[in-house]
C-alpha cells in the first residue's frame, strides 16, 4: 500500500534520482491528490453559495438573517470539522508506518469524538436566536434567523461523520468517491432549495427554514452514501471500521482529543474572526452586513483551492513523517505552498478587476435599492484581493504542521494572530478611525498576514522533526 504513496526506498537507493526529479515527483503527487480535494471543497462551498444566493432572492432582510444564522452554525461546524480531520494525519502516519490496525482504531474513535461534540453543538445551534440577541442584533432579524438555525441544526452530526469518512478515504489518496457524492449533493441541494424555499414543485414555501431542512436532508444522505461506499469497496472493507463500534478505545480516543481539539480551536479562531466581523457589520448597517456576506462568499470560494492543497499536504507530510523521511516532509510541505501561492495570485487579480461582475451574481446591479450594498461589496473584494496570498499561505502552512501532529503551538499562533491583531485592528479601523466596513476587512488582512508568516516560519524550522522525536507539538 505504501509503495503507491511514497517513493520506494530500495528504488531510490539504486536509481539515485536527482533532487529535481524528487521535487517533480512530489509536486505531481500533491497535485494529483489535491485536484479531487479542491473540487470537493468547491462543491461543498457550492452548497453554501447556493444557499446564500437563494437567500438573496428572498430579499435583503432574509439575506442578512441567513448570514447571521450561518455565522452561528459555521464556527461550531468548523470546530467539529477540525476534530474530525485529525483522522487524516493520524491515518496517514499509520499507513506510512504500516500500522493497519491503527487505521481502524482512529476512524472508529473519530466517530465517537464527533458524536460527543456534535450533540453539544446541535443544542447550541438550535437555540442560536438567543446568541444573536445577546450580541445586540436586531430582534426581527434574529427571529428570521431562528427559522434557519432550528432546521439546519440537524445537519451537523451527519456532516461531521462525513468528514471522518472523507479523512479516512483521503489518507489512502483515493478522494474521488467523495467528490462524486459531493457533486451530486450540490445538485440535490439546489433543486430542493428551489422547491422548499420558494414553494415550487408542489412543495410548501418555507423560506429560510427550507434552506435548513434541505441542508439536513442532503448531509444525512451524503454520509450514508459514503458509508455505503466504504463498506462496499474491497480495499476499504478489509479495515472493518464499524467492527465492535461500541467498544471503547480510550487510549486512541484521548489521543484524537489531544491532537484534534487544537485543530478545532485553530479553525474556529479564524472562522470566529470572520463571524465576529459579521457582527461588527451588523452594528454598522444592514447594507454592510449584506455586502460582507457577498464578499466573504467570494473569498470563501477562492479559499477552497488552498484548503484542498492543505488537505493534500496533511496526507503527504503525514506519510513522509510515518516513514521517517525527513526530506520528504520538506518537499511535501513546500510543494503545496508553491502551488497555493500561484493560484491565490490569480484569484487576487480576479477580485481586483472583476469585483462588480462577481457581486452581480448575487444581486441585481441595476436595482436602486441594491446600490449601497453593491458599492460596499466591490470595495471589500478589492481588500480581499490584497490578502489572497497570505490567506492561502496560512491555511497550507497550518495543514503542513498538522501532518507532523504539530497542533498546539499553531493553535496559539492562530488565536493570537486572528484576535489580538486581526479583531482589534478591525474594531479600531472600523469605529475610532471611522473606516466602517472597509476598516473591518483591513483588520482581517492584518490578522491573516501575521498567522501566515508565523506558521510558514514554524514549518521551515520544524520540518526536520518527525512524530515521536520528542519535539513536534510541544
Fold and architecture overview:
81% of the residues lie in helices and 0% in strands. With 474 residues, the chain is mainly α. The longest helix has 40 residues, at 19-58. The protein starts with 8 loop residues before the first helix and ends in a 12-residue tail after the last helix.
Shape descriptor: globular
According to DSSP, the number of beta strands is: 0
Please work out how many helical segments DSSP would assign: 19
Mean pLDDT: 85
Q: In percent, how much strand structure appears in the residues?
A: under 5%
- Provide the helix percentage: over 70%
- Cα-atom Rg, whole angstroms? 22 Å
Low-pLDDT segments:
1-12, 467-474
Largest sheet: none
What is the N-to-C order of secondary-structure elements (H for helix, E for strand)? HHHHHHHHHHHHHHHHHHH
Overall SS class: mainly alpha
Instruction: Give the termini distance in whole angstroms.
Output: 31 Å
Amino acid at each position: 500500500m505504501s509503495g503507491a504513496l511514497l517513493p520506494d526506498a530500495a528504488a531510490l537507493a539504486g536509481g539515485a534520482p536527482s533532487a529535481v526529479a524528487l521535487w517533480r515527483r512530489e509536486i505531481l503527487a500533491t497535485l494529483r491528490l489535491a485536484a479531487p480535494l479542491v473540487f470537493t471543497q468547491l462543491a461543498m462551498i457550492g452548497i453554501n453559495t447556493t444557499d446564500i444566493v437563494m437567500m438573496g432572492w428572498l430579499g435583503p432582510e432574509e439575506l442578512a438573517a441567513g448570514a447571521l444564522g450561518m455565522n452561528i452554525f459555521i464556527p461550531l461546524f468548523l470546530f467539529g470539522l477540525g476534530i474530525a480531520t485529525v483522522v487524516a494525519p493520524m491515518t496517514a502516519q499509520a499507513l506510512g508506518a504500516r500500522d493497519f490496525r491503527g487505521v481502524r482504531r482512529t476512524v472508529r474513535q473519530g466517530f465517537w469524538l464527533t458524536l460527543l461534540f456534535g450533540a453539544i453543538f446541535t443544542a447550541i445551534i438550535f437555540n442560536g436566536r438567543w446568541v444573536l440577541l445577546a450580541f445586540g442584533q436586531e430582534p426581527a432579524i434574529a427571529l428570521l434567523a431562528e427559522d434557519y438555525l432550528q432546521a439546519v441544526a440537524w445537519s451537523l452530526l451527519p456532516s461531521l461523520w462525513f468528514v471522518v469518512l472523507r479523512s479516512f478515504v483521503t489518507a489512502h489518496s483515493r478522494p474521488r468517491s467523495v467528490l462524486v457524492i459531493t457533486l451530486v449533493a450540490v445538485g440535490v441541494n439546489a433543486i430542493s432549495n428551489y422547491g422548499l424555499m420558494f414553494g415550487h414543485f408542489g412543495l410548501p414555501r418555507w423560506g429560510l427554514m427550507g434552506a435548513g431542512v434541505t441542508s439536513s436532508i442532503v448531509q444525512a444522505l451524503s454520509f450514508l452514501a459514503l458509508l455505503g461506499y466504504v463498506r462496499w469497496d474491497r480495499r476499504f472493507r478489509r479495515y472493518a471500521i464499524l467492527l465492535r463500534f461500541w467498544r471503547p478505545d480510550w487510549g486512541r480516543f484521548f489521543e484524537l482529543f489531544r491532537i484534534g481539539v487544537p485543530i478545532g480551536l485553530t479553525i474556529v479562531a479564524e472562522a470566529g474572526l470572520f463571524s465576529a466581523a459579521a457582527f461588527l457589520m451588523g452594528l454598522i448597517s444592514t447594507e454592510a452586513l449584506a455586502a460582507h456576506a457577498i464578499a466573504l462568499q467570494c473569498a470563501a470560494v477562492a479559499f477552497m483551492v488552498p484548503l484542498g492543497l492543505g488537505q493534500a499536504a496533511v496526507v503527504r507530510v503525514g506519510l513522509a513523517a510515518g516513514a521517517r523521511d525527513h526530506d520528504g516532509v520538506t518537499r511535501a510541505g513546500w510543494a503545496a505552498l508553491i502551488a497555493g501561492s500561484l493560484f491565490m495570485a490569480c484569484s487576487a487579480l480576479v477580485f481586483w478587476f472583476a469585483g462588480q461582475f462577481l457581486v452581480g451574481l448575487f444581486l441585481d446591479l441595476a436595482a436602486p435599492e441594491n446600490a449601497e450594498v453593491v458599492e460596499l461589496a466591490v470595495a471589500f473584494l478589492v481588500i480581499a484581493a490584497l490578502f489572497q496570498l497570505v490567506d492561502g499561505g496560512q491555511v497550507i502552512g497550518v495543514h503542513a504542521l498538522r501532518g507532523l501532529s504539530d497542533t498546539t503551538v499553531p493553535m496559539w499562533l492562530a488565536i493570537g494572530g486572528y484576535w489580538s491583531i486581526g479583531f482589534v485592528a478591525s474594531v479600531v479601523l472600523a469605529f475610532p478611525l471611522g473606516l466602517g466596513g472597509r476598516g473591518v476587512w483591513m483588520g482581517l488582512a492584518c490578522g491573516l498576514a501575521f498567522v501566515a508568516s508565523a506558521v510558514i516560519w514554524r514549518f521551515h524550522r520544524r520540518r526536520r522533526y518527525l512524530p515521536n522525536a520528542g519535539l513536534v507539538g510541544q
